[in-house]
Amino acid sequence: MDWSIQEIAKMAGTTSRTLRHYDDIGLLKPSRTGHNGYRYYDGPALVQLQRILLLRELGLGLPAIAEVLNRETDTVKALSGHLEWLAREQDRLTRQIASVRQTIDTLKGDGKYMAQDMFDGFDHTQYKDEVEERWGKDAYATSDSWWRSMSPDEKQQWKDRLQKLSADWIAAAESGVSPGSAEVQDLARRHVEWLRGIPGTPTAAPGGDVKGYVTGLGEMYVADPRFGANYGGEAGATFVRDALRVYAEENL
Amino acid sequence: MDWSIQEIAKMAGTTSRTLRHYDDIGLLKPSRTGHNGYRYYDGPALVQLQRILLLRELGLGLPAIAEVLNRETDTVKALSGHLEWLAREQDRLTRQIASVRQTIDTLKGDGKYMAQDMFDGFDHTQYKDEVEERWGKDAYATSDSWWRSMSPDEKQQWKDRLQKLSADWIAAAESGVSPGSAEVQDLARRHVEWLRGIPGTPTAAPGGDVKGYVTGLGEMYVADPRFGANYGGEAGATFVRDALRVYAEENL
DNA sequence: CTTGACCTTGACGTAACGTCAACCTTTACT
DNA sequence: AGTAAAGGTTGACGTTACGTCAAGGTCAAG
Question: Which among A50, A112, B120, B247 could bridge B188 via Cys, Cβ 3.0 to 4.6 Å?
Answer without folding.
Answer: B247
